[in-house]
Amino acid sequence: MLYAYFRTFGCKVNQCETNALIHSFAEAGIAQTDDPQAADVIVINSCTVTAQGDSRVLTAIRRLRRDFPDLPIVLTGCLPQAQPELAEQCAEADLIRGTRDRAALANEVKALLARENPVRCQVTPYTGRTEFERFHQPPAKDKTRGFLKIQDGCDRFCSYCIIPFARGRSRSMPPEEIKKAAQEMHTAGHKEIVLVGINLAFYGEEFGLRLVDAVSLCAESGISRIRLGSLEPEQLSDEDLRRLSEIPQLCPQFHLSLQSGCDRTLQAMRRHYTAEEYFQLTERIRRFFPDCALTTDVMVGFPGETEEDFSASLAFVEKIGFAQVHVFPYSPRIGTKAASLSGQIPERIKTERAARMNALADRLHEQFLAAQVGKTVSVLFERENPREAQYHRGHTPNFTPVVTPVFGENNSLRKQVFRVIIKRNDSARCYGTILAENTNSLE
Question: For 423, phi and psi rounded to 5 degrees?
Answer without folding.
Answer: -100, -35
